[in-house]
Amino acid sequence: xxxxxxxxxxxxxxxxxxxxxxxxxxxxxxxxxxxxxxxxxxxxxxxxxxxxxxxxxxxxxxxxxxxxxxxxxxxxxxxxxxxxxxxxxxxxxxxxxxxxxxxxxxxxxxxxxxxxxxxxxxxxxxxxxxxxxxxxxxxxxxxxxxxxxxxxxxxxxxxxxxxxxxxxxxxxxxxxxxxxxxxxxxxxxxxxxxxxxxxxxxxxxxxxxxxxxxxxxxxxxxxxxxxxxxxxxxxxxxxxxxxxxxxxxxxxxxxxxxxxxxxxxxxxxxxxxxxxxxxxxxxxxxxxxxxxxxxxxxxxxxxxxxxxxxxxxxxxxxxxxxxxxxxxxxxxxxxxxxxxxxxxxxxxxxxxxxxxxxxxxxxxxxxxxxxxxxxxxxxxxxxxxxxxxxxxxxxxxxxxxxxxxxxxxxxxxxxxxxxxxxxxxxxxxxxxxxxxxxxxxxxxxxxxxxxxxxxxxxxxxxxxxxxxxxxxxxxxxxxxxxxxxxxxxxxxxxxxxxxxxxxxxxxxxxxxxxxxxxxxxxxxxxxxxxxxxxxxxxxxxxxxxxxxxxxxxxxxxxxxxxxxxxxxxxxxxxxxxxxxxxxxxxxxxxxxxxxxxxxxxxxxxxxxxxxxxxxxxxxxxxxxxxxxxxxxxxxxxxxxxxxxxxxxxxxxxxxxxxxxxxxxxxxxxxxxxxxxxxxxxxxxxxxxxxxxxxxxxxxxxxxxxxxxxxxxxxxxxxxxxxxxxxxxxxxxxxxxxxxxxxxxxxxxxxxxxxxxxxxxxxxxxxxxxxxxxxxxxxxxxxxxxxxxxxxxxxxxxxxxxxxxxxxxxxxxxxxxxxxxxxxxxxxxxxxxxxxxxxxxxxxxxxxxxxxxxxxxxxxx
Length: 860
Known about the structure:
elongated
C-alpha cells in the first residue's frame, strides 16, 4: 500500500518584532483590563445610506431621466470599531437603502457581496468607495456600484443594417449610424458600409474598447449576398468588422472555413438579382428565410468571445475573437412539435447568454403550437426563463379603409403563403405575420427583459417587387412586436399581461397578451388608418434614459423606416427618427427595411486609488481611530517606470487616478490613458510636510497582511498593500477589464522605525508525487517571506517530523522529533523571500497519511 502525503500549504503564525535602540527583541503582548461594578450607558446611534447603480460613472445618483439610477438591493454593509470588532451589519433593501443600528463612535464601514460583474463606482459627491470612515450617527453614507456594460456617454451613436434592393455589387449604404439624439426626419447619418462590402446583414455587436462594430450575414429575399470566396454561392456565414473611428469595413471571418454549415444558396446571379431599381422573383430564397445563415450575434463583456446562433443547424456557437477559432457549440433545448424551431435572438448579460427561440408550427399549421421561449445559458446548461404562447390577438398590421383583410391581427404559423391582396388599390398589399424572436434586451433600472419579435414575412417580401413568379408588383406590410417581462424573484420572468408589466400599466386596448399591450406607442396613423404593430424586432436600451429604442416602420412618415423610442414607465412613444423613405423598389418601405439595433458606447472609465493612513497599532489594517495622512505624494507609473501622473492626498488621505473626463484637482487626476488588463505601479515619493506625517519616514511602511511583493490582487479591502521597493513604498498592480474600478490600493505607515514580519509556506517539492510507497524518498519545499520593511537575520526554521517519516537530509539536524537547519538563513531583505528544501524517507511498512508542518522558530 502507498503512503499519502498531504501537499500542505502551511503558513506559520507571523513573527512580528520591534527593534529598539538598545537592540533588544520585544514581542507584542495584549493587555486585558477588566472593570467591575460599573455600568456604562451609551446612546445607541445609527449609520445609514444607500447603494445605487452609477450608470454614467460620475459618483452621484441620478433620480430622473435622462440619468435615472436606481438603488441596488442585496449588498452587505458592515461596521467595525477601533478594535476590529464587527459591531453592526445590514443588507440593502430593494431600493438600496440600509441602516446600521447600535453603532457608536468612529467606525469603518465596508460594502461587500455585490455580484462579480459589478465593481465599485467612481468616487464622487455621493460615493466614497467601498471602505468608508465615519462617526456615528451618520447619514448619506452612500456607495455607487457599476456594471461596466451599463455605462454609456450621454449621446452615443446608434447603428443598424439597412437593406437595398438588388445584387451586392453597388455602392448603396447598408450599414449606418447616427446620434441617439436625432429626431424627426433630419439629422446626421454616418455611412459605414456598402452593398459590395457586406451585402445583407442582420446581427450587430460592438467591441467598445477596440471601437469595432461586427455585423453578420442575413438571408433576405431581393437583397444580395457577397461571394467573397468565389464559390458561386452567396456567403451565408460571414462576420464583418467596421472600425467606427475610420469607418473602414472588411471581412473579419468566413465561419464556413471553420467547418460550420449554414446551408447553401446560389450567388446573386443565380438568384436573378439585378441592379438597385430592378425588381426580382428570387424564388429560391423565399422558403429559406429564417432557416439558413446566421441569426444574431453578441460579444461577451470582455470582448474575447463572440456568440452566434446558426439558423441552419439550430446551434449556439462561441468563437474565440483573438484566434478566430470555435471554442464550442451547443444544441439549444426545445419542446417544439415536429422539430419546427428557430433560434435567433441573442444577448450576453451578466455572465450568461440568452437565446430567443420560436416554435414555428410550420408542419402542423396549428397556431396553438406557436410558442416563444428565452433560454439562459450559463456556459454549462440551458434554463428556460421565459416561455409564452404566440397565438394571442394583437394590434392590426393594417387598419382603416385600406385594410380589407384581417391577417395582420394574429401571428401565423410559418408557411410559404400565397400573395394575398389586402387592398383594392390596383397593386398587391400583402400581410402574413410570422414570428421570429429576433432580439433581447434588459433594463437595469428594474431588471425587466424586453423581447423583440420580427415578422419573417418582411424578409420574404419587399416593396414594389415581384412575386416568386411573374411580374405582378406587390407591397408588403409587417406586423412585428415588442413585449416586456419582469423578474419573478426565482431567476425567471413573467410576461406582461392585459397591458400591465408588474406594477406599471400601459394600455388595456385588447391588443396583446391577456388583452392589452404595455408598449403601446408603436401605432402609426394618418388619421383614418394606419398600423398598430410597427416593430422590425431590433432593440437597444441606454441605461438611465427610461426608454427602449426599436427599429420600426413609418416612424414619422408613411412608407419609411427608422427608430422609435417607447417610455419604460407606461409604454407610450417618447421620440422617433426616420432613416429612409421609400419611393420604389430600392428600399423596403413597410417591409423589414432595417436589421438589428446597436448602441456604440464608449468604454467605461477605469479608476484606481485610494487612501494613505497612519497605522498606529502596526497591524496593517485601517482602523477607524487611525488618522489619514494628508499631503502625501503618490506617483502612477507604467510597467517601464515612466511617470503617468502625480497626486497629493487630500485631508482624508485619498488619492485617485482616473481615465474619466473631468476637472483634475491636486488629489484626483482625470483624463489619464489607463488601459484595461495592464500593469502599473503606485509609489509614495514624498510624505510632504503636513503635520499628520510627523515622525514617519518613507521606509516605515506597515506590514501588508495577505499581500506579496508581486502584482497586487486588488481583492483585499482594508489593509496596507505596499512594500518598500527601491527605497519607496510601492504597490504593483494590474488593472481589470474596462470599467473595473479598484479603490483598494492603500498605503499604511507606522511610527515604529524598524519592523520585520516573517511568514512561511510549505508545499510538496516540484515534481514530488502526493502518494508514494514505503521506503521512498520525499521532498518538501519551504518558502520564507519577509513581509516587513527591514532586513531579518539569523532566521531559524523548525520542522516537526510526523510519524512514518525519517529525516534524510544533511542540511538539517534532528532532536526530539524536530528538525532544524544546520545553518540558519543569514539575511532576508525586506520584501524578499527564500526557499529551503527538506528530504525524508518513508518508513518501511508505514501506510496512511503523513502531515508535515514547519514554522519559523527564531530570528534577529
